[in-house]
Structures are given as C-alpha cells and as structure tokens.
Amino acid sequence: MVSIRTVNLTKVFGDVVAVDHVSLEIRHGEFFTLLGPSGCGKTTFLRTIAGLEMADEGRIYFDDQDITDMPAHLRGTGMVFQNYALWPHMNVFDNIAYGLKIRKVPKEEIRRRVKEVLKLVKLEGMENRTPHQLSGGQQQRVALARALVINPRVLLFDEPLSNLDAKLRVEMRAELRRLQRELGITAIYVTHDQEEAMSISDRIAVMNRGRIMQVGTPKEIYKNPKNEFVAKFIGQGTFILGEVVTYGEELEVRLESGKVVKAVPSHPDVRLEVGDKALIMIRPESFTLEPGKGYNEFEVEVYHISFLGDSQMLQASNEVENFIIEVDPDLEINVGQKLKVYAPPKHTLAVKL
Amino acid sequence: MGQAAGLSKLLRKIRWEMDAFSWSQLIIVLASFTAFLIVPLGLVVVRSFYSSSGGFSFYWLQTILTDPFYFPLRLKLLNRFPFISLEGIRGSLYEVVKYQTAGGEETIVLLTGWDMGVIPNSLVVATFTTLFSTVLGFTLAFIFAKYRFPGSEVLRIVSLIPLLSTPFVGAIGLKKMIVADGVLNVLFYDMLHLLPFKIEITGLPAVILVQTLLFYPIVMLNSYTALISVDPTLEEQAINMGASGFRLFRTVTLPLATPGVEAGALLVFILSLEDLGTPIVFKGTTAEKVLTFQIFNRIFTPAGLISQEATTLAMILLVISGLVFVGVRRYVSLKKYAMLSKGGTWRPKRRKLSPVVTLLVYIFILGVLFFATLPHIGVTLLAFAKQWGPTLLPSSFTLDNFIAVLSDEEASRCIMNSLVYSSIATLFMVVLGVSAAYLVSRKKSLPGIGALDLLVTIPIAVPGIAVATGLFLTYLGTPLSPTISGAPLLIASYTVRKIPFTVRAVFSGLEQTDKTLDEVAWTVGASRTRTFFSIVMPMILLNVLAGGMLSFIYSMSEVSTGIVVGDANHRDAPMTWKMYDMLFHGLAGGTFQPAALGFLLMTLQFIFIVGANLLLRKRATALIGV
Question: Where is B497: in which H helix or E strand?
Fold first, then answer.
C-alpha cells in the first residue's frame, strides 16, 4: 500500500498536450477516480503512472520513491485494461500465475495463491478454461485476479467496466470496491461514466483537456463544483447566466431576464466581485413547489415530462431560460401547465465564469 | 526549449524505449543489412564512377549512354526543334519466313519486336508487362469480386497458379508452347487449321508474354483484396443517389480500389525489370538485350575480375528500380497490407449473372487460364517426356529424366546445396525478420523507425543482379569470396533478398495482436525480453512459421545470385544454377532434365505456399500483396 504523488506531470503527443502539469496526491488505500470526457488525458495519466508512457516533464512518487524513470515491470502495479488483455494462448491458471512465475514463487504456493484469488473473484474451478470460453464479465474477473495475485503496490483500472452490459456493470462496481477495501490496496480508476465514479470512489479528480478541474469527494464535486466545467459535467441542473450585483454577507445575481436571485458561491474557494459574470446552477432536486422564506421564485411552463419511476423530471421554460425540475412521481401534471417553482438560496449556486 | 533540451529529451526517449534486448535486435538487423546490402549496393554505385586508373569519372556511364547497343536514341536538333531520333531502332514488329516442306510451302510469322537498345528495351518490356498484367489481373479480380457464378471460387484459386511459378519453369514450359513447332501451332495450325500460318513469338515479345502470364496474379490478388475491402454500403449509397453501370464503376468502385491496383502494378514493373530467368531462357534472340541479361553476361570474368561495364549497368538498373520504388511508397504505403487484411469483415455483395454473360465470362476466364497454366503443363509434360517432336503431346512418357537428374552427382549436390543454404538463410531471416518487425510494430514512436521499415522492405525493389554484382565487388578477395566457397555469399544474399516475406508475415501478425497484451505483462513484472519470448512470440508463431516457409521457398528458387556465384564455383552452386547450366551447357537430356528439376522445385513450392496459406488462412493475402 502506497501513496502516489505526481508533480507537474506532463505528457505530450505531437501537438497535443495529453496531460498538462498535473499535480495530484493519492492517499494510502484510497480509491481514487479520474473522471472526464474521452480524450481528456485520464488514460494517458494512468499509463504514465504504470510506466507504459514516458513522462515528458514532472515527477511521479510512490511514497517517497521517485519512480519517474523506472521501467514498467519494476513498478509493482497491477493494471486492468478496458479490453481485459487476457493472453489468448494461455488458460485462466497460466494467465493468473504468470506474474508469480516471474517472481519465482514456488509451484505449490502459486497453485495455492491462484486458487485463493480465483475464490476472491468468484471463479473457483475455472483454472483450465481458455479466455475465449469465458463471458465478458468472467474475463474481467480473470484480468482482475491476474492483477491482484501479485500483491501490487497499486491497482490501476482503465475503464474496466465499459465493455460490460449495464446490469453487470453495477454488480462489478460494488465488487471491485469491496475487494479493494478488503485488500487495502491503493487504487486509481479511470472512467468517463460519472455515475460509476460517484458510486465507487473515495475521491474524484475531474479532468478536462489534460488538466485537473477539481478534486474532491463525490459529494463535494456534486454539491460544490468549482467551475463551469465541473458544474455542467457532473449531474444535471438548470443553468442561468447572470451578473453579480451584491457580494458580501449576501450574494445576489441579476439574471439575463432582469430578475435578481439570492445565491451562495458554488464552492468555498470561489471568490466573486460585484460586476462578475456568474453562472447560476440549481440541481433538479433543489426545486420545491412550496415557497419558503427568502426562496427564489420562478414561473415556468412545462414542455416535457420524463417519468422515471422514483421521480418525474420536468423540462420547463420561462421564455428566456430553461429549467430541469425534479418532482414527486405522484404529482399530477401536464405538458403546457404553468407552475411556480422555488429554490432555496443555499442551493442556488453561483459558479464563477 | 533549446536544441540541447530537445536532444536530451530525445536521448531520454531512446533510453526509455530501448533496453539491451531491443538494442541487440536493432544492431543485428543493421549490421547484416549494412554488410550484405548497403555496402555492396553502395560499391556498385561508387565503382561505376571509377575510371580504369581508379579516379572519379563518368567514363563508363558516358560510354554506355552513347553506345547504340545500350542506348541508341539520340536527341537531335533540327530546325531548332529538339526531337528524338529513332534511327537506332532496329528490326520490325514481325517477320515472315517461308520455307518448303514435304507438304508444300509453309509460312511462319515471327513476332520479334523492335530492338531499341538495352536500356529502352528493359523499360519497354517492363511497361508492357505491367500494362497487360494490370488489365488482365484487374479484370479477373473484378469479375471474381463482383459476380457470382458456378465454380467462381475454384476458378479464382486456379488463376493464382502462376504464383507458384519457379525460375525458368514458366519460361521453359511456355517456350515449348510458342515456338514454331510448339504445342500451340500444332494445335491451332496443324490440327484445327484455325490459323492461316504458323506464329512464333520470340525475343522481347516472348519475354513480355511470359512475364505477363507470370505476374498478372500479383495485380489480381492486390485488386481483389482492395475490391472486397470496399465497404459495400459506399456503392449502395452511390446507387441510391442515382449512379449505376459504368458511372458507378468509374466514380466510386475504381477510385476506392486504386491504391491496391497501383501497388500491384508497380510491383510487377519492378519484378519485370529485374527478371533474369526469362531472358535467359530466350537466349539467342533479342530477349538477350535487356539490362539483367547484359549484366549477368558481363559481371564476372573467369580471371576473377568484375567488369566495370556490368557494374555501371547494375547501377543504372538499381537507379531505375529505386525510382519506381519511391513511386510505390509515395502512392501507397507498403503498410497498406496490414490494413487491408483487417478489412473485409463484411460479406461482399456479389451479383448473379445471366446465363449468356456467364458463358462469356467462362470463355474469357478459361482462355486466360489456358495460357496461364501452359507453362506449368508444359514443364510437367517435359519433365516426364521421353521424346517430344512437333506433336501436341510427347510421344512417350518416362521417369528417366528424374532418375537421370537425381543420379547425376552434380545435380544432386546442387539440390543438397540449395536445401542447406536456404535452411540456414531461413534461420537468419526468422531471427532478423522477427527482430525488425517487432521494432517497427512496437516502437513506432521512436525516430528512425520508419527508416528501419524501409530498409527491410526495400529488398523487394532491389534487382537481384545488382545485389549479386555488389556482393562480388565487396567480397572478392576476402575470406567470404565466392571463389573460395559459394556458401557464405549465397546464404547472405538469400537472407537479405528474401527477408521481406518473413518481415511482412510477422509484421501483420504483430499488428493484429493488441499491444496491451504486451503491456499487461510488463505491469505484472515481466521484463521486455521476457515478454517478447513468453507473450509475443507464442502469439505470432504461426506468422513466423508461414513467413519462414515463404522465405525458404523463395530462397530455393532465387536466380540472380545463384547463377552468378554458381558460375564462379560449380562445387558450391545451388539448384537454380544447375538448371541454367543444363539448359545451355548440358549435353544429353536437352530441356527434359532441367524441366525435371523445375518440376521438383515447383512441387516443393506448391507444398510450401499452400502450407503457409493454410497456416495463415485469412491473413494470407498479406503475403503477396504489396
């Protein structure tokens, strides 16, 4: 179990800066996720940690050891790839035992440890299958077992669940987390799926164009986005452009429609000034149909209703702005209906632009 | 960032990518190619600019270009307009010979073609061979790719038979067919009376005919792969927008297939240019007046000297092939085959033909196949013939030719020599070829890897006779001298000349193997060396095997170096030299015994090529296509 630290890590492909001066600290035993749209550099970052790509600038530390120039095979990482990368010419046992054979572990112990790890990933008795005899989920478990069996210092996951179907993905998610926690191995996980990131991680780093946009717990990232990118990338919300008119004890923003709303800075680090452009963000579930003291009030007309079972999502507008509002699934409502909705100031976030 | 920073980054990159194992792979490849390809070819170029006293001079180049034997075309200024004088061109397209026979007067039309001098002849032959091969190859490919009719698969495979052709075999066989008292005249003049006179194709036209029939499958295979790799929805979209018939073909189908066709055509051009076997078989006619034959004839004097004239001719041949090769690289990346072999995942749409059109197609294809398989039929008949006068078939059959060949001490020694040299060369080719293919496939980001790729594919474009000349220039008088033993140079020459087959087969295997399979091995602790042997090699084993088999069989049938070295030292000569020797200096047996040798070689080639293709199955198209 190690902590991982990168300092100004940079990787350039031709004219593209895939990873741009990234400094991160990943703690002992932490489940850390890199989340971002495709092409944001998250996989490249992971591959650089694994030693599969050479860092063009910056340093990488495992605990206090500088491993920036260490070859991949000496780093002691266990990596699980998106395509599983099982060796087709070996059966399940040989795939998993490969790393142990390299470490010259005695035969008997190899047998025992492979058996153990297969049990851990719930594939007992599958030793003699070849990879193409396995389902996608099973292949994924073999890949995981192969990474786990060598007792890696760090586990690296490159979108490991993206080739599985939706139901299996949810199951595997929980299982990955359980295993990682039981074994206490530091893990870095790469995904473009924010729901997956939210449900699995201790902390998330949101990446865009090679840069880290925000690091925080899933809750922080959702509730307190630091900037426009994170606010729009994570979850849904109503976004309205405005200008700060009061900043001090209270924060007031004048929207383009002329309406003035009370708000709070989206993140404790966000500093605004009067005259700044700001983006007002309200999460769908922050809206109520009941007025409260000091609540911001909006009058909207519903133009689309999505019934989701446990809730209903309303898409509505007031001619200038569009709203996404979550309401009780039992509420009787029709397209074209006019509504008054309210948002408490503490959930009316002003994102700095 | 200054230059120094850029340089240190580059050095760091190289250190990162290259471990001791990669370095050793790179070094053995570079060392072998330097010693047996670069230096020899360099010497060919350098020596052709030596004067007899040793200094730099254009003497030989000038001598050759002003000698009407080599280059009779003259630029003349007349009325201030430059024009090319055709005075130097001799001969005519055909000659009519009449002679008396017992049954009256007989007329023979000899298709001889003009003699334009050695250098233009070579280019004209290559141009026509390319033109005919392309038309023939593409037409066949188009029919097979687009239409469905009974037996089309069988016919398609049969039409690839000329790929099995071994040196001399095709030409010997075909010669028996097209001479005045050959099978075709017997069939069409004497028996069927379809011709008003006998036709004999000889000289350069015969070379063009033989080469066309030998090389059209290369264009066909490339075109076929290109055509079936075209996504059918692209054509459907065009049809949807109102295109049909010839317009569809011209605007959509042809442009999409063009890279494949061009690649095949340019390869044929080079192969025609460097072909030595065919001109040798038609020795004694104008077929002699091509570059390869002239070099061969002059290269080595019994006194152990290399002719300067031959060296300069080799340089000219080298330059021409080099220019054509640059053309190939420019138009179509040689790597295209990797992409093409991945394509074709969809089922190509094939249209059914109406009965009348089917009949026409059959007539056309069977006609082509009749001519294309003539050499093989001819050589097989010759190999088993006891006597063969001016009749359709030999008058009696026998196995004596094989017995004679195999009991001939020199012949069996030459067969043994060929087997040994080719086996050793194959070992080298596998080691070097796998190394080169691995570096090219897996270290793409390293600067200079493109050059390595070029180095190991370029032997395709280097005429064998130029390599032979270079090897003689470099190693005469050294311990590797062919006058001491032919073995080292033959093995070296086979290795560098035939390595592209191994490299391509292995490279296509590597490209189809996901790089993450290597990477995951590193992450669990395997060094690059260990990964190479325990992960990469097992996965590409079939490709290595198939590539090795092809390299082996093409080594067995190598002509240029074989007969030059063989002439210098009969004891160590390979099989191809023996065939040459028997054809022209042989006493008894005439063409029967060389045909028997050819038949043996053809059989061996058949087994190996079919074997390699079975091993690779779908990937097989990667092997012949450029």
Answer: helix B487-511
Residue finishing a domain among B339, B354, B384: B384
Q: What is residue B324's three-state secondary structure? A: helix
Do B328 and B428 lie in a common domain?
Answer: no
Subunit contact B520:A85, Cβ cutoff 8 A: yes
Q: Which of B539, B545, B537, B536 is nearest to B615 (CA)?
A: B545
d(CA B55, CA B29): 33
B380 with B411, same domain: the answer is no
Which among A73, A87, A89 has the least Cβ separation from residue B522?
Answer: A73
- Chain A interface mutation, best of B13, B514, B523, highest count of A Cβ atoms under 10 Å: B523
Q: Which residues on chain A are in Cβ contact (under 8 Å) with B9? A: 56
User: What residues of A are in contact with residue B521 (Cβ under 8 Å)?
Assistant: 73, 87, 98
- Which chain A residue lies closest to B18 (C-alpha atoms)? A71
Nearest to B520 among A81, A88, A103 (CB): A81
Number of domains present in the structure of chain B: 2
Taking an 8 Å cut-off on Cβ atoms, the answer to whether B517 and A76 are in contact is: no
How far is residue A136 from each of residues A79, A139, A149, A164, measured CA to CA in Å? 17, 5, 20, 6
A160 at interface of B, judged by CB pairs closer than 8 A: no
- B positions 508-537 inside 8 Å of A (CB): 514, 516-517, 519-528, 530-531, 534-535
Which of the pair, A269 or B335, is modelled with greater confidence?
A: A269
Is residue B278 domain-shared with residue B141, that is, in the same domain?
A: yes
Q: Which two tokens stand for residue B193?
A: 């009376």
What is each CA distance from B8 to B5, B89, B569, in whole angstroms? 5, 61, 53
Name the 3-class secondary structure at A297. strand
Using CA coordinates, name the residue in chain A closest to B10: A56
B24-to-A77, A116, B232, B439, B535 alpha-carbon distances in Å: 28, 40, 46, 11, 19
Of all residues in chain A, what percent are helix, strand and coil, respectively (each to 5)? 25, 35, 40
Domain shared by B426 and B365, yes or no = no
Instruction: Answer whether residue B303 shows pLDDT above 70.
Output: no
> Where would I find the H helices in chain A?
42-50, 92-102, 107-120, 136-148, 166-183, 194-200, 218-223, 228-233
Which 8-state DSSP code applies to residue B190? I
Please report the domains of chain A, with CATH numbers, ordered by start residue: 4-228 (3.40.50.300), 236-352 (2.40.50.140)
Determine how many CB atoms are found less than 10 A away from the CB of residue B542: 17
| Chain B CB contacts of A99 below 8 Å | 524-526
Mean pLDDT of the residues in chain B: 81
Interatomic CA distance for residues B68 and A174, integer angstroms: 86
Distance from CA of A194 to the nearest CA of B (A): 25
Q: What does residue A7 show for φ and ψ, rounded to 5 degrees?
A: -125, 115
Output the pLDDT for position B356: 84
pLDDT tens string B145-183: 888 888 887 888 777 777 776 667 677 777 777 777 777
Of A75, A78, A85, the CB nearest to B517: A85
The pLDDT value recorded for residue A304 is 94
Nearest CA in chain B to A83: B516
**What is the domain-level CATH number for residue B369?**
1.10.3720.10
Whether the CB-CB separation of B506 and B500 falls below 8 Å is answered with no
Per residue in A193-208, pLDDT tens? 999 999 999 999 999 9
Domain interval for residue B292: 118-166+216-384
What pLDDT, on the 0 to 100 scale, is given for residue B234? Answer: 72
Structure tokens that stand for B244 in this block: 């049909």
The helix or strand, by DSSP H or E, that contains position B364, with its residue range, turns out to be helix B355-384
Question: Last residue of some domain: B349, B384, B419?
Answer: B384
Residue B322 and residue B427 in one domain? no
My answer on whether B152 and B40 are in the same domain is no
Chain B residue with Cα closest to A103: B525
